[in-house]
Each structure stands twice: as structure tokens, then as C-alpha cells.
């Protein structure tokens, strides 16, 4: 769980989302409970971004699971995606943002220089009712630049 060994008691029929929220991982949101909105996104091992509301928790025994809480570094510093979302005003109510961040993280793991269209496609499974998607797409591309070292504004910042 976010790089640490953890065990959870799981009830019969319980979803991964229910288990994670019960264990205090509140970044996993219950938006639609039908796998449509992306608010419950997690990174599930090699499967990548996954709707945790559709996954039986018992099927995740031994799996690597990452929630939005796992994006921050060990000192609590923000991941470049999180910083870019703040800088670009890509979050308002933030209910959907953990899922959007994990979809973005998954995209950048597979494509370190996504085009605007590729980012839009990568985020298409996430519903945001506040910001629209322009700022989120800009933020993902800014984070990609920062992670690749091509962002001139991050030079000399550490």
C-alpha cells in the first residue's frame, strides 16, 4: 500500500474502495459507485489506473496499490503533478482531483511527453464538474515538462 506492507481485514463482497476508505485512505472517493466517474481511482499494480469501486477487495491480496496519498514524497513534499495542479488552478472542490491525479500519473508513467489530445484522452474517464478540463490538461503537460527536466521555470529550484 503506497510502497508499504499493509494488511486489511476484508468482509465478503467488500470493494477495494470500501476497504481503503475504512482504513483511512480518504483520497479514494465514492463518486458514482458504478465505475463511471473516476473519483475512486487507484493504481493497481501492473493494471495501472483502476476503478476501486468495481474491484473486490479480496482479489487484491498481495497486490501493489497506490492511492493519491502515495504521490507525495517521504517528507510530505508534493509530487510535480500536485504542484502543477495548484499552479494552474486545476482543482476547485477537489472531490474528483485524487482520481484525476492518479489517471494523470498513470498516463505519465506510459507517456512522458503527452500531447494535449493524449492528456485529454487519458483524463476522459474522470468527471469534473468544477474546473472543466483545460487547466487540468495544462497542469499535466507542465508536470510532464517538469519531470523530464525541460521546464525552464523549474531550473535552479532544486
UniProtKB/TrEMBL annotation:
Residues 1-71 form the 2Fe-2S ferredoxin-type domain. GO terms for molecular function: 2 iron, 2 sulfur cluster binding; metal ion binding; oxidoreductase activity. Keywords: 2Fe-2S, Iron, Iron-sulfur, Metal-binding, Oxidoreductase. It comes from the Archaea. This is (2Fe-2S)-binding protein. It comes from Haloferax volcanii (Halobacterium volcanii).
Amino acid at each position: 500500500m503506497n510502497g508499504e506492507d499493509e494488511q486489511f481485514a476484508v468482509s465478503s463482497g467488500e470493494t477495494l474502495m470500501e476497504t481503503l476508505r475504512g482504513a483511512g485512505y480518504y483520497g479514494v472517493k465514492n463518486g458514482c459507485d458504478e465505475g463511471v466517474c473516476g473519483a475512486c481511482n487507484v493504481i493497481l499494480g501492473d493494471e495501472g489506473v483502476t476503478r476501486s469501486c468495481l474491484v473486490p477487495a479480496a482479489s487484491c491480496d498481495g497486490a501493489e496499490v497506490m492511492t493519491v496519498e502515495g504521490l507525495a514524497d517521504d517528507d510530505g513534499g508534493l509530487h510535480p503533478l500536485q504542484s502543477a495542479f495548484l499552479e494552474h488552478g486545476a482543482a476547485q472542490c477537489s472531490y474528483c482531483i485524487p482520481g484525476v491525479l492518479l489517471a494523470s500519473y498513470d498516463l505519465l508513467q506510459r507517456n512522458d511527453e503527452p500531447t494535449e489530445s493524449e492528456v485529454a484522452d487519458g483524463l476522459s474517464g474522470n468527471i469534473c464538474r468544477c474546473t472543466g478540463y483545460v487547466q487540468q490538461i495544462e497542469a499535466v503537460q507542465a508536470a510532464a515538462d517538469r519531470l523530464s527536466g525541460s521546464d525552464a521555470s523549474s531550473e535552479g529550484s532544486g
